[in-house]
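[Automated response] Your request has been received and processed.

Submitted sequence:
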Amino acid sequence: MSVLERVLPLAAGVAAAILSLTLLLIARFYERSGGGRSNYRLFLLPAGLLVLAGAFSADPGSRAGAALWLAGGGSLLLLCLRLYQRMTRRG
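Generated structure:
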C-alpha cells in the first residue's frame, strides 16, 4: 500500500473537519450577534468524528472508519439543517 493511499483519507477527514469548524464559527457569530441560541459547540462533535474517520480509513476495509464517516457526516448534516432553520426562522 502506498503512502498516498494512507494520507488521502486523513487529508479528507481534516478537510471535512475544517468545514465543520467554519460552520462552528458561523453559528457562534449568529449566536453572539443576537440571533438566538445556536449551540455552536455541537459542531465540535462532527469535526472530531471526521478526523477519526480519516485516521481509521487509512486501513483499507476498516468498518470503524466507515461507521465514523457515517456518524460524522450525518451529525454534520443534521447540525447544518438545524442552523439553517434557526437562521431563517423556520424552526
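Summary generated for your ticket: Residues 30 and 36 are 7 Å apart (CA to CA). The chain has one domain: 3-87.
If you did not submit this request, please reply to this message.
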